[in-house]
Amino acid sequence: MFFSQLGYYSLFCGLIVSFIIIFLAYSNINFLKKELIHKILTYVFFQLFFVFLSFICLIISFVKSDFTNELVYNHSHTAKPLFYKISGTWGNHEGSLLLCLLILILFIFIFLLTSKNQPKRYQIFTLLFQEVIIVGFFSFLLITSNPFVHIFPSPKEGLGLNPILQDPILAIHPPILYLGYIGSSIILSSSIGAILEKRVTAEWAKSLKNWITVSWFFLTIGIILGSIWAYYELGWGGFWFWDPVENISLMPWLCLTALVHTIIVLEKRFLLATWTLVLCISSFTLSMSGTFLVRSGILNSVHTFASDPKRGIFILIFLFFLIFISLFILFSIHKEKKIDNKNFFLSKETSILLNNWFMMYFLSVILIGTIYPTFLEVITNEKISVGPPFYNKLLIPFLIPFLILMAIGSNMKWIRDDIKLLNSRLIILFLLSIIISYLILNAKGLQALFTTILLGTSFYLFFTTIKDFFIKSRINISQKISHFGFSLFILSIILNGIFSNEIITNIQVGEKAKSMLDSERSDKDEREPGNHRGRRERKVTVHSLRREFDRLDREMEMGKHLGQNETKVMKRMKEIRAKIRQMQASEDANVDLKEARGMLREAMIAQEEAHVEVQKAAQAAQEAHDLMLQWNKEVDRQRELAEDAHRELRKSKKEADKAHHFYIVSLRCLHSIQDILRAMHGTATGESQRGARGEVQDLMSKLMSGDTLSTEELMQLQRFD
Predict the structure, then answer these.
(1) Same domain, residue pair 620 and 714
(2) Residue ranges making up the domain that contains 42
(3) How do residues 263-277 score in pLDDT, each as one tens digit?
(4) 687, part of any domain
(5) For residues 264, 270, 272 and 275, what is the CA-based torsion angle, rounded to 10 degrees?
(6) Cis? peptide before 397, omega within 30° of 0
(7) Of the ranges 287-301, 392-406, 434-448, which one carries the lowest mean pLDDT score?
(8) Alpha carbon distance 80, 78 (integer Å)
(9) DSSP string, 111-156
(10) Model confidence pTM above 0.90
């Protein structure tokens, strides 16, 4: 409880420091001195310290299993490993927001440290806007999402973390993703500061490029880690399922990717300034929009944290406020400088701008596919699902010119270029890419022109990137590595779609997946021409036709059949449907077959009932087995307790025997002392009596000193009785 209270009061202290920073910065905006900048930096450090202390207190509460904290109770338990106790700190709504707040303050602190050579007013304007965002996060935490709510009385055990979230990759995926999201806040604040200071220059673009690159890098790594986790954990059948929350993370990534390229144009040629500023505002706006959609519960997704309308309304109001202020400052203060662009048609600037348009188109399609079902449900109460076919049909055709532009644009020159760009080397690479693609698809038995061109353009980007590594003497390493990675990524997606074989079937209890796969492969071999040699042909049934129809329908939905192949598949599906109707009509006319079907149906029902009973019996047997194991553990525990008690009994018996022996010896000594006292108080007189009394006293002194008396001395004492 102590750490929870300390964390809560630390948050309040951080909020108070935020107001102090805003007051100092705003009141001295026209009278900035070096001492004031140092003072503000000190306050930002204290703000960072308070929030960091609050976050550490939350981690300690999770590690110590402090169930007086409601957040710990809901997302942890005592048996959870230490690693997942720590990761559980941000594996929830409140903890993740606290981590975002910490990153926000950390980034503005680093910005102030690294921008000492920048104009002071620009630093202060950036700081002010960033602190506005920080205050919004503070308010969101303390009003609607307090991570330090107390429970009284305290429960003895917690509910535990969602088992799906207990994964090493997912433990590090959210913090890395937040670094990408929150990194865009500095981009937004810096752009607002540059507009207010009228400092949208090539120098400013150069300084901002590092922040854009860092944010884009962490967001990319976060998305990749999430895709890996989704591949082996969720069973989606791939690394990307067009889940709404996946799309939410992809949209700011597309915006940041476009910004990475336009900031270079602004730095090199001082063009596209307004468009660059729009992208700076949009990147953080899309990140906040994702936060609103996820935290409000509007989107139904495995990633959804909560369904609390109060939280959603708060984020929505804050989001509208940021968008309104940013756009108002942009369009009321910033004015684009007119530059002679007569040679702008064929150049690297042109290729970057065109690629920006393509990325904005991709972003728009994803935004519509993610948001439109929600709006339609609100307006018409009609629910629709938008899946891979929608995105494949709208995105894949435009991917071909996009990849060609990526391959050619990186080889273009600034300001002006000519048609000589299409030299023989690039043409040979393109033809080679198309030929390789044709051979791959032909070996697979596919004759789709569109798929061939798409695969060829992917190979073309791959080969041109490798060519630049070996031929060009001066290359942009980061650019080529990113282009190479993107080309490899696209190639992997396309080749995976071509060579993968998805099988959807039901596996009964006790059935092995291998036998099921072998059966599916044999069915496939029977369908393919040239594979009937040495094998008995299977009889075509309604069941086999329906299975083939379902397979083709799934492949169509996944976008595996495009162009001419799509027409062939549609024709085949019509033929299968007609055969099914024909066979069903002939089977319905057969009376004996109807009776056999009825008997088969009854037998299947009986089999299913028996299967249910077997499952119940198996479950009861498993429960009995578990109970037996539990009682075996209890018996072993009681046996250990009995052995411990027996050892203690033997030890106590030894101590009792020792005490009894000591008692006997003491009793004998008391009898001897009594005898001696009687001898000392005797009535006899004379020298002999005095001598005897002296001997008795000597023996008595020897006995009292702890010495052992001999048998002769004891007999002498008895004589004086």
Answers:
(1) yes
(2) 1-165
(3) 999 988 888 899 999
(4) yes
(5) 80
(6) no
(7) 287-301
(8) 6
(9) HHHHTTTS-HHHHHHHHHHHHHHHHHHHHHHHHH--TT-B-SSPPS
(10) no
